[in-house]
Design a protein that fits this description.
There is one protein chain. By secondary structure, the chain is mainly beta. It has 4 domains: 167 residues, Immunoglobulin-like; 88 residues, Immunoglobulins (Immunoglobulin-like); 86 residues, Immunoglobulins (Immunoglobulin-like); 86 residues, Immunoglobulin-like, CATH 2.60.40. It has 3 helices and 36 strands. The strands form 9 sheets. Strands 2, 4, 5, 8, 9 and 10 form a 6-stranded mixed β-sheet that branches. Strands 12, 14, 15, 17, 18 and 21 form a 6-stranded mixed β-sheet that branches. A 5-stranded mixed β-sheet has the order 19-27-26-22-23, with no helix packed on it. Helix 1 runs antiparallel to helix 2. The N terminus is likely disordered.
């Protein structure tokens, strides 16, 4: 008898074999269910006399389970050993084993369909050993094909055939695939762009045999690990600015590892990051406002002063491209609200900055004399405009009969609006005026107070007083003068 090889590579006997295995598996499963039901009924039912059948029933169950296990391993009919689909690396050695249930009645052969030219060929010891890639041997009724060094020439579909040496019936096994592992490949867009708050599906395709295990990193932090995939669909349902950055994909299998990177760009409207706090600056100084913005794409800027748009002007305003505003040589009318407006094609943001220009203080109110004695005067006045700076004190001057204003030396008046002047001359005329002092400067002199006259000195107290030269019509009174003033 001769064996005729299959000449049509696309026709495989595996389909009808698997159908037959399926039908057998269903039949055995039903039989196993019946036996288990019977065993359960005997264990819990009333017919205790049937318990003697338990060992036989359990033995039949075990036999059926063994048959199901053999079928689930896709062993073809007539074989007790058969190769599985395999993926190996180049240069690796592999054994393909076949064993028939009745090896004495059959001649066991192995055939291969080479992927290189899609031709079928029997492999026997003489032919195989001559090629230098194969070795065929028989070990305990098992036909073993050893591929010494897997390469592209040995890649293909292998199957075992049992040829009946008596009858003309063959046992033909299904093809098993032997493939060379291929290192992973990665395909994706170099840049993925999305608008903030929208969704983004990161789509990455992979090649390789076997399918690679994939790890996804975002800015160095692992985001996902998915084993054995050909396409990664990673959904970002509500994109935020933090989702932007460098994404790294690493794919690995038994043949190697591949690494690729791509950028995710998130587009969003401006957000002004600079803190807004009121600012005080002295008159005639230069003031700079920064408007730091986070936006993509880049923002354009406008500045407004009290809702009026500003433009660059020599010696007044400088508007820079980075959003900075410089106000030169500020005056009091520069006090107010400066608004930074940043905008791009996705929207805008604005923030107010308050500027307070510090100027010299205004003159205090006219001093009022609350009370006075021979040597003291109690003054009180109203506080004037402080020029947006803290008043650090007051300076006081007085005017007497000379009509010239004189400053009290070494006299420091605190920030309160009352003060007692000491060490004045008794029975003397006085008028007073004062000015406020701040870190910016001092005010004009206040309006002078009304003139007052300090109390005069009292007479001296007499001592050793008495009478002398007393007669019927007269007498003399005498006394001595002391240093003490009468109370």
């Amino acid at each position: 008898m001769t064996y005729t090889e299959m000449t049509t590579p696309t026709k495989h006997p595996r389909d009808h074999i698997l159908k037959k295995q399926y039908r057998t598996r269903v039949t055995l499963t039903h039989k196993l269910f019946e036996l288990i039901t019977q065993l359960s009924g005997n264990a819990y039912g009333r017919k205790r006399r049937n318990r003697s059948h338990h060992p036989a029933i359990m033995l039949r169950c075990l036999l059926i389970i063994s048959l199901l296990n053999s079928i689930s391993g896709h062993l073809p009919d007539g074989f007790t050993k058969y190769p599985e689909d395999s993926v190996v690396t180049t240069g690796q050695s592999i054994d393909l084993e076949c064993m028939l249930k009745r090896p004495t009645d059959y001649s066991l052969r192995i055939t291969v369909r080479f992927l290189s030219n899609m031709t079928d060929k029997f492999l026997n010891s003489r032919e195989v050993n001559g090629q230098g890639h194969y070795k065929v041997a028989t070990k305990k009724k098992t036909r073993v094909l050893t591929i010494l060094k897997v390469n592209e020439d040995t890649e293909g579909d292998y199957r075992c055939i049992g040829v009946d040496i008596v009858s003309d019936e063959d046992l033909v096994g299904p093809y098993r695939k032997l493939r060379i592992a291929k290192p992973p490949g990665i395909q994706h867009e170099d840049t993925m762009t999305v608008v903030e708050s929208r969704s983004l599906n990161l789509s990455v395709s992979f090649t390789g045999l076997p399918l690679p295990n994939v790890t996804l990193y975002r800015n160095g932090t692992m985001e996902a690990f998915i084993p054995n995939i050909d396409t990664l669909q990673y959904l970002l349902p509500h994109v935020t600015r933090s989702d932007a950055g460098l994404y790294t994909v690493i794919a690995s299998n038994m043949a190697g590892e591949a690494k690729s990177e791509f950028q995710v760009i998130v587009r969003y409207k401006p957000r002004i990051m600079t803190e807004s706090t009121p600012r005080k600056h002295k008159i005639s100084s230069n003031v700079s406002f920064s408007c730091d913005v986070d936006s993509n794409p880049r923002s354009s800027f406008k500045w407004l002063h009290n809702k009026t748009e500003l433009s660059s002007h020599p010696n007044l305003y400088s508007l820079l491209n980075n959003g900075q505003l410089i106000v030169h040589n500020i005056r009091y009318n520069h006090t107010g609200t400066y608004t930074c407006k940043a905008s791009n094609e996705l929207g805008e943001d604005r923030k107010d900055f308050k500027l307070i220009v510090q100027v010299p203080p205004g003159a205090p109110g006219k001093p009022k004399v609350e009370s006075y004695t021979r040597t003291t005067v109690q003054l009180k006045w109203e506080k004037g405009f402080d020029g947006h700076a803290d008043i650090t004190g007051y300076r006081l001057e007085y005017q007497n009969e000379t009509n010239s204003w004189k400053r009290f030396t070494a006299l420091r008046i605190p920030t309160s609006t009352t003060f007692t002047v000491n060490n004045l001359r008794p029975n003397g005329p006085y008028r007073f005026r004062l000015r406020a002092v701040t870190s910016v400067g001092h005010s004009q002199w206040s309006e002078p107070s009304e003139e007052i006259m300090t109390h005069p000195l009292a007479p001296l107290k007499p001592l050793q007083r008495g009478l002398r030269n007393i007669n019927a019509t007269s007498f003399d009174v005498y006394w001595n003068v002391s240093n003490r003033i009468m109370d």
